[in-house]
Amino acid sequence: MGPPQHHAGARSGHHSHEAFLREIPGFSIELAESIERCDTEFARLGEGWQDDRYQQFSEEWSEAAQPMSRYLERSADGISFLQDKVAALRAYLGVA
Question: CB 25: neighbour CB atoms within 10 A?
């Protein structure tokens, strides 16, 4: 029989949660790999470029990378929470 009509929002919410859950792990992996590649290339760049402008760029890169690194550190917990939420919604809706 399925959930009552007043729970139709839960059904559409369930689909948007699942869509996001399919995308976010890949995004996190790609972000981590991109940061690692940039760090490696920036270190190589520093082997031949050591002036005030390099130092300024280095500081700016570090400042920009910090929030991305914090996101990556916390994303596993967020993904786990979302997986639990999707599972609960699926159980509530009787969706396999």
Answer: 14
